[in-house]
Amino acid sequence: MKLNYPKVNTNPNQKVFISFFIENKRYRLYNGSRIGSDTNPNSFPLDQRKSIANLLAAEVYNYLLNGGLLESYRNNEIISGKLSDKDYLTRALETKLKGLYSNKYKMMLQGVHNAITIIMKGDDLTPNHVKLYLDRYTSGVSHNTIRRHLNVLVNEAIRQGMKKNPLLNIKSRKAIAILNKPFDNINEILTSIKEYNKQLYLCCLMTYGCLLRPHREIRELTWSDFSDDLKYIHLSGNRNKSGRNRIVPVPTYIRKVLVKGEPHHNIFSGRQQALNQDYFKTLWSRFKRQSNILEQGQTLYSFRHSGAIEIFKRTGSITKLQKAMGHSSINVSLTYLRGLEIAELKEEDMPMV
């Protein structure tokens, strides 16, 4: 393991510290407490601190060479007379990566960590660094998503000892609601998709008819999620966005398309492993490029929106819409309904003369 001899440095407050590298990673110590030494250069007068720091450098070097190096590196213990912000963020990331989170969430945290540490260049994270990073994102949704993940790392770093929060005065942006434009010609669209790709067709049909979300809830379905007669889908809380167990009816026109397989096999791949997370996104993009009937703003989620409109038009019930969509509260459904641009007043409701 590569180790360089510690150097003596002085910070702007006239405090001395030693710095050294293990495997190209920088460490700093202001005293010898981490190696069981009482040597503390900064307890001495200014003119004596450097000479005492040289003694500390020799003590640390001997400690590492005589058995302390490998153990300290493994346990990450020698790191902190004082950790840099970059060190704290890296520790925070390591902590989160060990947690019981989804792979997608961990990948987001890893990406945010990599990006912000490149922008930092030095060891300290400032509000200017954060602003420079977030200003890359013009979309309010993207800006807030990145800010939220960065905040997770910063809060964990603070919990581990980082002193300041550079996000305190950087607020979320107001996100502009993006309308996934519903279909007026649902049968024509579905017929066109069926001719293009049978798996994409089944995904779209279930997004519309069962109002499940395509990229995870539908993509990860196995035959064991269905009742024996295929009339219902049972999803546990950890399988859907609301976090609650759901029982979803399967319409007859979808059951006619289904060909039941082995209980623990994915309904699309025919294996225990689901298709990759971008599978339907990629298929939809390819279909969209060759289609001449899709309109601007129509996406895979437009099938879910179209199904929601159909339910609300037939029932007029927000409660039924909430249950069908799997929303955690009626407030979410109300917001969603406004986004669907369904008129709350009919012509007969308007004043008459």
Can you walk me through this structure?
With 353 residues, this protein is mostly helical. It folds into 3 domains: 7-75, no CATH class; 85-159; 186-339, Orthogonal Bundle (hpI Integrase, Chain A), CATH 1.10.443.10. Helix content is 46%, strand content 7%. The protein has 13 helices and 5 strands. The chain has helices at residues 49-75, 85-97, 103-120, 127-134, 140-159, 186-196, 198-209, 214-218, 252-255, 279-290, 301-315, 318-325, 330-339, and strands at residues 7-10, 16-22, 25-29, 232-235, 246-249. The strands form 2 sheets. It has a 3-stranded antiparallel sheet. Strands 4-5 form a two-stranded antiparallel ribbon. Strand 2 and strand 3 (25-29) form a beta hairpin. Helix 3 packs across helix 4 (127-134) and helix 6 (186-196) packs antiparallel against helix 7. The longest helix has 27 residues, at 49-75. The chain starts with 6 loop residues before the first strand and ends in a 14-residue tail after the last helix.
- The average pLDDT value, as a whole number, equals 82
Under CATH at level 1, the class of the largest domain stands as Mainly Alpha
Radius of gyration: 29 Å
Q: Write the CATH homologous superfamily of the largest domain.
A: Intergrase catalytic core
What proportion of the residues form beta strands (DSSP E)?
5-15%
Note the overall shape: elongated
How far apart the termini lie comes to 90 Å
- Main beta sheet: strand number and arrangement? 3 strands, antiparallel
- Output the number of helix runs: 13
Helical content (DSSP H or I, runs of 4+): 40-55%
Structural class: mainly alpha
Strand order of the largest sheet: 1-2-3
SSE topology string: EEEHHHHHHHHEEHHHHH
Low-confidence stretches: none
How many domains? The number is: 3
Q: Which fold name fills CATH's third level, the topology of the largest domain?
A: hpI Integrase, Chain A
Which architecture name of the largest domain does CATH use?
Orthogonal Bundle
